[in-house]
Design a protein that fits this description.
By secondary structure, the protein is an all-alpha fold. The protein is about 60% helix and about 5% strand. It is globular, with a radius of gyration of 23 Å.
């Protein structure tokens, strides 16, 4: 589900002979004239644009591809105490201005837009005040330092001279970021301190590899500044790693955020109306159902020989080139989504040399208007869950990150006629949509002639449900590391190393796995209700196309806008309850 923030991360995460005969559409399709789109409220659009500009300067560097921000040319990461306080004040002003527009008096489409903008603002509050990552997670500062370089190189592995100047300026910011970390980190969960020190690894190896990869591209007149920047990187990371290890005894905060903050995240950021307890029950049922389906599938394929993984990433790239056209044909004949010549698909490529030393920092997935590129780790063991499965079955990754997965979501949503719906609020909805389409693709028959591949597709959704349950138990019941990792190994089928990495990510990003599963489960209910209401006129193609177009709109808001149900909005208000800062 989902990409890679730690080495071997499991989620963030969170793909032969096929199509010997054309598949029939899953449900009847009927041409429907699209409804006219009313113009957005000018006041809402103006406030949203101002907020997005602010976010590009003040939002943190994140490992999630869907939330990657384009920075202005002179941007530098600043997480000093004064800068954090200024952000908190700005949030209050933005929130007050949104309230002053009285969204409750607007027409439904503008109320949906206002709710999206409000959730984006509340995510700022979540990061800075409720979860308070700058005080809690040492990995946050690693993201701001290395992640700020990673984002440039991901977009352009062969940086221009202007981009090299930007990289050098950001290298020079490392000492200030590390000093801010030492001053701000006063509520640290020890698991996150150990994970960050381990992620840094051998500082000399990391710095030397980065310098060797980028150095030949640096013009002679920048060499001096580049060497100074590399020294700043080396000394700062070494100092930070030593400080984390020496300070570990005073890092005593619990890894669990508690039920109240978890509920706040679901209600204010994810806009998910399920109480955590209800969500846990849904995830438990889903996990049991997937486990049963896997048992039956494995029984049927027990005589089939196991599929051997590719021995190198180059072979995976070659097979992906063949599989892309096969997937395009499958999507056209299955009717899951409309054919779209603009969806160029996902390319897999070896990790570029400048990115390789810091491949653990974020998702090596670059979305562009003309396509998308997923850079592969050098070995299967370094890869996240879906990427590691792609070493056996590339179609899993091509559909998860390509079409109809996360790239198709980004491309479709970026063309939405209502501007406020073109930007992702959080990765949770994108992950939920990826789970939703992963299930439909499997059921529609992409892996008909490869039972082992179909089982791996099931395993992806099993891990999604298991991660959600572990996330919920961590918050609601205070599970410890051993309980979470044992559960993920036994019920999610994860290896010991992946279970440990998953636990660390659940501690670092609480709520994300639960919100991703909530989106997935709500999508299934939305599909069922929409098909019942439309009857024989229902078109799965049109329904899924609309989901892609509204890929950044939480399912609760989509249901309200299309089916007219306000009950879920009432449930959402109940879910929000008390402020998260009120003691439990």
């Amino acid at each position: 589900m989902l990409g890679s923030v730690t080495k071997g991360i499991t989620w963030r995460l969170f793909a032969g002979a096929l199509l010997c005969m054309p598949a029939a559409p899953l449900l009847a399709q009927q041409a429907v004239e699209p409804a006219p789109v009313s113009p957005s409220s000018p006041a809402l659009v103006a406030l949203s644009q101002e907020f997005r500009t602010w976010l590009q300067r003040n939002g943190p560097v994140e490992p999630f591809a869907s939330n990657r921000l384009r920075r202005p040319p002179d941007w530098q990461p600043d997480w000093s105490q004064s800068a954090i306080q200024a952000r908190k004040s700005d949030y209050l002003r933005f929130q007050a201005r949104l309230d002053a527009l009285a969204p409750e008096t607007m027409e439904t489409p503008d109320r949906v837009d206002a709710a999206l903008l409000g959730a984006a603002m509340e995510r700022v509050h979540w990061q800075l005040e409720v979860l308070d990552r700058p005080s809690r997670d040492p990995g946050f500062y690693l993201d701001q330092a290395l992640g700020s370089l990673f984002d440039i190189l991901l977009e352009t592995p062969q940086p221009t001279e202007l981009q090299l100047e930007e990289i050098i300026r950001r290298l020079h910011r490392f000492p200030a970021l590390v000093n801010s970390a030492k001053l701000n980190l006063d509520a640290v969960a020890p698991e996150l301190a150990r994970a960050t020190a381990r992620r840094i690894g051998d500082v000399d190896t990391l710095t030397d590899a980065f310098g060797a990869a980028l150095g030949p591209m640096v013009p002679a007149n920048m060499n001096g500044d580049f060497e100074v920047g590399l020294r700043a990187m080396r000394q700062s990371l070494a100092s930070y790693q030593d400080w984390l290890r020496v300070s570990e005894s005073r890092f005593t905060h619990a890894p669990s955020i508690g039920a109240q903050k978890y509920r706040w995240y679901l209600g204010h950021v994810a806009l998910a109306p399920q109480p955590p307890e209800t969500l846990a029950a849904e995830a438990e049922l889903a996990l049991a159902g997937i486990g049963a389906r896997l048992a039956v599938s494995q029984h049927r394929s027990r005589e089939q020989p196991a599929q051997a993984p590719f021995d190198q990433s180059g072979r995976l790239v070659q097979m992906a080139d063949i599989s892309r056209s096969e997937i395009a044909t499958f999507l056209q004949t299955s009717g899951l989504v409309s054919p779209d010549s603009d969806r160029a698909g996902l390319e897999l490529a070896p990790m570029p040399a400048p990115l390789a030393p810091m491949a653990f920092v974020g998702e090596a997935l670059n979305f562009r208007r003309d396509g998308a590129t997923r850079y592969l780790h050098a070995t299967r063991e370094q890869a996240g869950l879906v990427e590691s499965m792609a070493w056996v079955e590339p179609r899993l990754l091509l559909t998860w990150d390509g079409t109809p997965g996360r790239w198709a979501q980004q491309l479709a949503a970026s063309a939405h006629p209502r501007e406020l719906r073109r930007h992702a609020v959080s990765p949770a909805l994108s992950n939920g949509l990826a789970l939703y389409f992963n299930e439909q693709i499997r059921d529609a028959g992409l892996y008909t002639f490869s039972p082992a591949s179909a089982e791996m597709a099931l395993e992806i959704n099993r891990v999604g449900a298991a991660l959600a349950l572990a996330d919920l138990h961590l918050a609601l019941d205070g599970w410890n590391a051993g309980q979470v990792q044992t559960f993920l190994a036994e019920r999610g089928g994860l290896s010991e190393a992946r279970a440990q990495a998953a636990y660390e990510n659940l501690v670092a990003y609480p709520g994300l796995a639960g919100a991703s599963f909530a989106a997935y489960s709500r999508l299934l209910r939305f599909l069922a209700d929409a098909s019942l209401e439309a009857g024989e006129a229902f078109s799965l193609t049109e329904f899924n196309d609309r989901l892609l177009l509204n890929a950044h709109v939480p399912v609760t808001l989509q249901r309200w806008e299309t089916l007219g149900s306000e009950r879920l909005l009432e449930d959402l208000e109940t879910q929000r309850g008390k402020q998260a800062t009120v003691p439990e």
